[in-house]
Design goal:
Helix content: under 10%
Number of strands: 16
Radius of gyration: 19 Å
Structural class: mainly beta
Largest sheet: 12 strands, antiparallel, barrel
Number of helices: 1
Order of helices and strands: HEEEEEEEEEEEEEEEE
Shape: globular
C-alpha cells in the first residue's frame, strides 16, 4: 500500500509544470530540523505540524502521535537566527506477552537555539549554532523528544546553490545527552546519556514558484548507553498557498534500530 501511495505522489509531481524563474529561498527549509541550514530565516516563521511514527521493538510495537509548534526569527541587521519548538506527544507501547500496555500523553522537551551566519557568498552560506533542551519532557513517555533533561548540541551547517532552483544543504554536530529517567510499568529506569555525533544532508528543488521537493538523510550515533544509531531517510513537499502561508509535509523511513520504522508529518507555516 505504501509503495502505491509513493508511486502515485511521484507521478502527480512529475506532471506539474516547472518554471524557469523558480528559486529556492533562504526561507525554504528541510522538514526535520530547519535550523540545520547555512541560511538565515529572512522573516519571522511560525509552524504548526501534526506527525505520526511507528516502530517494532523487542518489547512491543511503539507508536506516537504528536503536535509540534515551532518558531523561528531573525534579528534585524544581524546574521543571527533564533528559534524554539516543542512537542505534545501521545505515546503508546503495546508490550509483548502482557496486558500492561503503556499509553501516555505529555509534553516533550523544549528546544531553543541560536545560530550565527559567519560566511555569506552568492553561491553558499555557512553558519554555526547552539541548541539547548529545557527539561519539560514527561518521564512517562519513552521517546528522545521527551528526555526531561538539559541537553546541549553544537552544530555547523552549510547551503550551496547548484542553481537558483536547486540547493544542497548539509550539517555536522555534537550533542551531549544527560542521563534520563523513564518510567516503565511503575518502575523508574535510568538511561546513561552518551555524546552523539550528528551528520546529514539534503536537497531542495523548486519545481516552480509555489512548489518545491525535498530529500534528506540524517544520521546520529546512539543517544544512550545500549541504544542504537538513529538514521533516517526523508522526502518532503512544500507548497506555497499564499506569499505568507505554506503547506509542508514529509514521509520518513528509519534506516537503523534507533529510529522509528516509518512516519509522516503534515504542517503549515506562516511568515510575517
Amino acid at each position: 500500500m505504501k509503495r502505491i501511495i509513493i508511486l502515485w505522489v511521484i507521478t502527480i509531481l512529475l506532471t506539474i509544470p516547472t518554471a524557469a524563474f523558480a528559486e529556492v529561498t533562504p526561507g525554504d527549509r528541510l522538514i526535520q530540523r530547519p535550523e540545520w541550514d547555512g541560511a538565515i530565516m529572512p522573516y519571522q516563521w511560525v509552524q504548526g505540524a501534526v506527525g505520526y511514527a511507528k516502530q517494532d521493538t523487542d518489547s512491543g510495537d511503539a507508536t506516537k502521535w504528536y503536535f509540534e509548534p515551532s518558531f523561528i526569527a531573525s534579528l534585524t541587521n544581524l546574521p543571527l537566527e533564533i528559534g524554539a519548538r516543542t512537542q505534545l506527544i501521545d505515546f503508546n507501547l503495546d508490550l509483548n506477552n502482557t496486558s500492561n500496555d503503556i499509553d501516555e500523553t505529555g509534553l516533550g522537551d523544549i528546544d531553543i537555539w541560536c545560530k550565527y551566519q559567519f560566511l555569506k557568498k552568492p553561491e553558499y552560506f555557512v553558519s554555526a549554532g547552539l541548541l539547548l533542551t529545557l527539561p519539560t519532557g514527561s518521564e512517562d513517555i519513552i521517546d528522545p523528544a521527551a528526555s526531561g533533561e538539559v541537553n546541549l548540541e553544537l552544530f555547523a551547517a552549510g547551503r550551496y546553490y547548484v542553481d537558483q532552483d536547486f540547493a544542497v544543504i548539509g550539517h555536522a554536530g555534537l550533542r551531549m545527552n544527560h542521563d534520563a529517567d523513564v518510567k516503565v510499568q511503575g518502575q523508574t529506569r535510568t538511561l546513561d546519556g552518551e555524546t552523539q555525533f550528528l551528520l546529514g544532508g539534503g536537497v531542495i528543488y523548486a519545481l516552480n514558484q509555489k512548489l518545491n521537493l525535498q530529500g534528506e538523510i540524517n544520521i546520529a550515533t546512539d543517544a544512550y548507553d545500549n541504544s542504537d544509531n538513529d538514521a533516517q531517510l526523508r522526502g518532503g513537499v512544500e507548497y506555497q498557498l499564499h506569499p505568507d502561508f505554506k503547506l509542508r509535509s514529509g514521509l520518513t523511513f528509519g534506516l537503523d534500530d534507533g529510529a522509528y520504522d516509518w512516519g509522516f508529518l503534515v504542517g503549515c507555516a506562516y511568515t510575517f
